[in-house]
Amino acid sequence: MALANGEKFAEHSHNGNPHREDGRPVRTWEMSDRGFRTYLRGLKEDGVTFAASEWGLPLAALEDENSFSFTILRDPISRIVSNYTFDVQGGYTSWRNVNSWQAFEGGNWARDNYYVRTLVGRDWHEDMEETEALDMALRRLGNFDAVLILEDGQLERRVRELFGWEVSASVEKKARVGLLGRCLRAARALQQGRLDLAAIRLGSMSRISARELRVLAEINSLDVKLFEVAKRRYGSP
């Protein structure tokens, strides 16, 4: 959406996330505050107007008075199910149970309580008191210039008001659904010589069971609580 509306990304980037020439992501959230500010200054000098940070939060970004920081939160359970579905249909995982996928997949996007972990960042430790972690995450969420809720019925209006972007100009295509969409994705897999992936894409995924959803809610209880507070604070009335 940002690119389609004329924003400039870093020379090497993936979905707006700056990368190095060799394809590795620039791990800004692991930089010192001074190092991040130097890096950010370099981006601005290069004319970059938009940089995403999908896998971590550089806290110094929230303190820069000459930048506008924003985040879009999605229902955490829906986010997990969406990422799991993407991995299964893309042939990126052999897990066929969303709870096992989250427990053993290993990527940042699959971690439990992804939102709270990301917001707490380098201050996170596994034996933190839940209230301490949640309070810290909510404080840092409040340091963003704008917090948007994906499920908010006013999201399109708010994006237009904040950035002047036209949502309809997004280059992202809506996911194809139904038999036609599965056939097209299977055909692309066959063109790549991936018979196994074609079979996965042609078949329909089994529904996530009520038990699996309950386990997700329990394992990701901090994110569920954070999202409920965020909806009340930042969602449209």
Brief characterization of the structure:
This protein has helices at 33-45, 76-89, 98-104, 114-120, 130-141, 155-163, 178-191, 195-202, 210-219, 221-234; strands at 13-14, 17-18, 70-73, 146-149. The protein is mostly helical and 237 residues long.
The strand line-up of the biggest sheet is 1-2
Q: If you compute it from the alpha carbons, what radius of gyration comes out, rounded to the nearest whole angstrom?
A: 19 Å
**Strand fraction:** 5-15%
Shape: globular
Number of helices: 10
Task: Annotate the secondary structure layout.
Blueprint lengths: L12 E2 L2 E2 L14 H13 L24 E4 L2 H14 L8 H7 L9 H7 L9 H12 L4 E4 L5 H9 L14 H14 L3 H8 L7 H10 L1 H14 L3
Parallel strand pairs: 3-4
Antiparallel strand pairs: 1-2
Helix pairs in contact: 4-5, 5-10, 7-8
Question: In words, what does this structure look like?
Answer:
The protein is mainly alpha-helical. The chain has a domain at 75-144 and 174-234. 46% of the residues lie in helices and 5% in strands. The radius of gyration is 19 Å and the shape is globular. Residues 1-26 are annotated as: Disordered.
List key phrases describing it.
237 residues; mainly alpha; 10 helices; globular
